[in-house]
Fold each of these.
Amino acid sequence: MLLIFRHGPGCRRIKSCEGGVFLHSSGSSLLSGTLLLTATGLFSQVLGFLYRIALSRLIGAEVMGLYQLIMPVFSVLLSLTSVGMTVAVSTLAARFHALGDWTAIRRVLRRGVLGFMLLLLPLGAAAVLASDAISVYLLGDARTQLGILLLVPCVLLTGVENLHKHCFYGTGNVRPPAASETIEQLIRTAAVLGLLVLFLPQTPERTVGLIVLGMIICEVFSAATLIVLFRRQLSRVDLRPSAERITWRRIFSISIPVSCTSLLATLMSSANSVLIPNKLVAGGMDASAAISAFGVLCGMTMPMLLLPTGFIGALGLTMVPDLAQKAALGRRREIREQLTRVLSAVSLLMAPAMALLTVVGPDLARWVFGDAAAGDYMLPLAVGTLLGCYQSVLSGALNGVGRQGLAARNAIVSDAVQLAFTFFTVARWGLAGFVAGFVLSSLAGALLNLVSVLRCAKLRPRLVDWFLCPLLAALLMGLCANLFFQICLDHALPLVCSCLLAAALGTVVYLAALQAQGVLPRRKRQKT
């Protein structure tokens, strides 16, 4: 259910030489790429969060629930057509970029786009023809049909965009997709909200259709922009004749395991999305109230928790091709060093963010979304989100070192745990059953991926440095921030002011706790 990966460090610098184009990697260039994508991701997260606030106030919880219902169809189509292709393009582009073979990179991208189109043509037609049956029998609400119809062109544009974007990531050029991502978010926000302001009030079905139409408008810009930018990049490099054969077998050997994993995970996630309101109704809740509760959980509470995860998305986008390059060149020691830095960075950044959101999140969510149920279950959801960050990064590490099968197995087990909890407990426990499954499934996925990465990379576990010290510091930060936050509220300070003061005090406490545990000095000595 946690979609952190819209799929250290991996920025590469290209230098022209007599023989062609060679790859030069350095710690600073890798860090700069991750920092650029992190800044872009955080901006997109914040803008997307503000967009969610405006969207929820314009359309309400019930229509938000309908919109959340159609998104699994979007995810399934992408899983079947483009997800595996994007990983194959990124991985192969990274390998050929290490060899300076831009002709092979161009061939890889062309094969990837062609394969995506061939897959989407019959699947998109089937989705259009069966849209009525999908809306009524699979999603359980006929009002989703128009949104399903409009999703097909949106998938087409998104797939083309993602293939070009991941080719840029594979070659280490993160600036064009970063700029495109930023402008895309602005266009999506303006297009969707503009259409709603102009044409509301409408029926719920047409309202969902307006949202998807706004998504299509922004995807037209992104796809066209990245195509033009990639062609400009090709015009600046040496396209020498290449002896590399880009066969379908070579592409599908990477894409099929990833696609199958993504499809199965998406199907389980989609089943979750459909089961939650149905099980809530089976437990005695009114159908409209069930859709509203689902919309609040997935459209309001979860987006707030995902705000700090822009770093994780950036890390995954740069880490996978960089690990693939190191694996291709046999640099096992560098892989282990990079994984050590990655795991430490995830703990040091995500643990305090989740601790702070646990304290201020419930009150802040109710204030910004204007819904009394927004922010419910914030503590367990924050724990599950943190575990999901570990799961996501470790899954990317397995894909980067060529162990897609292990990543697939672990993801399936994790999603199966979530689906089982939703199926057996939501009717009896309500949304608490889903939340319990979310935490346990994220824990299972993180542990399985950690064990797999340790074995594959022959990496010695450093559990104290990776997890224990940052988590203890974050726990102390959360306790102190909570005490100070409640004091501020008791003295009638404004909510936003109270949140900022609690965040400032919490940050000081967190850094002091790390210093007391010797984490910060130890990091400095290692760098020296």
Note: Residues 27-98 form the longest helix (72 residues).
Amino acid sequence: RPGLHGHRRGGSAWAPRFVPAGVEPISGGVAVSAVDAVAQLRVVTEVTVGDVLSVRCTVTNEGDGRYLLDGVYPTLPVPPHATELLTFDGRWTREFQPVRRAWPSGTWVAENRTGRTSHEHLPLVFAGTPGFGEWAGEVWGVHLAWSGNSTLHADCLPDGRRYVQAGELLHPGEWCLEPGQSYSSPWVVGVWSGAGLTPASWGFHRAVRAAGVVQGRPRPVLLNTWEAVYFEQSTAALQELASSAAELGIERFVLDDGWFGGRRDDRRGLGDWWVSPDVYPDGLAPLVAHVRGLRMEFGIWIEPEMVNPDSDLYRAHPEWALATDGYEPVSGRNQLVLDLARPDAFAHVLGQLDALLRDHDIAFVKWDMNRPHAQGSGADGAAGSHAQTLAFLRLLDELRARHPHVEFESCASGGGRIDLDVLRRAERVWTSDCNDALERQAIQWGASMLIPYEVMGAHIGPERSHTTGRVHSLAFRALTALFGHLGVEADVRTLSDRDREVFAEVIALHQRFRPLLHSGDAVRFDPVANGGVVSTHAYGVYATDRSQALVAHVSLVPGGSLMPPPLRLPGLLPDVVYRVEHVPFPGSRALWLGSGVQLTGRHLAAVGIQLPPMHPESGLLLHLTRVDGET
């Protein structure tokens, strides 16, 4: 499959043949030039090596006429013995669902046209040796660091060679290279491990940390108001909610949808980014002052890439919608995409958001995107997804430059925009709109193969899940959210006295282990399956120097035997002795009588720990610390 798709007028230059034209050193790697004098094209391939392998191709039109570009796909070879694939499917509220498949021959392709990284086709694929697991087998991972449309392509050629291509999916006619013009593909990021998936994923995690966006300070425990009040907002009610949150030890209060314009439901108001006088007659200042007086940070929700037809903005500028002339605009969730590639629309939104952040003491912005692109054309009539994605990134960059103290979260109906490109600009991602703890176990498991815990938004939701209707114990909900950037999404004003105690204890426990959770190496252990259904998850974090670890062992559904198999913990220092202690979890009755045992890392990896049987939807938390001497 060609790595460059395109042609000149009349169909010529459709199959270029490049020859080397030079190599230059760049920071961390090299830039290799190649030219085709007949097609009048130049390709510069940048390759850097560090915690990850990064590759990007830039195509330049060196001819006198236009070159119609259909796609540029950097190609990474994988060896012939990588005969299995791990890919990720999903949907809204069920993101990051891992799918294992044999790859003896043929081609696997995933294409995404949603204008974001999408819930359905995460741009991430792992190839590995047969039967590779979390701690065994060779693994090659490939991720496209791009927040828009994408194509992933894994191919086994008849001669046995294998490769993975990744690149931006361009709509027909979306990119035409004028003479002298260039197009750069998104960065393709690769990782490798000779010891399974878990060590491979550390490369991606270190790349996120190396980007430097997460500023090194503790990630504040937050309360998000959505599932507490929805659109029923008032200053008095939210002040009461904030007071209850502060009493639990919450450190950041985030006001979700409904604070602006005529936004009393999800059918109107998007685009009118001014504080609603109907809901806040005195503005947001009294609420912000109350929150800050409680020693919490204040955060706010926005969705700047969208517009409701029922809004002042759309009534004034219907031409700003990303729609195609001659067709009825395609709405989704009662909204249209706002064409931020238009300089006037971009300047308007930037001005409104700049004023919002300038005039209020806001430390955090939840940036949402609640619908995909569909049949959207820019002002020139060509497809507008590429330009819109660049405009989104440029808007976020500009706001960060003007307000460097503000942190941003990438949200797109939950986990619809999570990639290493947006994580160069955002301190947090909203992993899923689903706060159901049972669903979250699988979602966060998959997400941890790409992102570290400190950027993974994980909330303790209400007793009854908003999205599934399931009821879970507070202990199970809290244990599930503990490994992430912890938040609360429930009406804490209505908690019983006992539940308030549990919430406060869980938050204190998270704060106790937060330095380890948000700096160590995330680890996963091969799940236990019963009839093809995963019955047990075990995961945690190891300190980078392996001086301590925190591990959760979670029962999801009834297992195939009364006793779970021993929990084996590879990856610790083999000749070091560890003390293994049960951390009593607030609200849980789980007990392990073996707490305090001292075992070597070698024993923990080869033999493991026998844990007691547990009820479904419950778990144990273990803390391992290095001790001196022999046992």
Note: The CA atoms of residues 258 and 527 lie 41 Å apart.
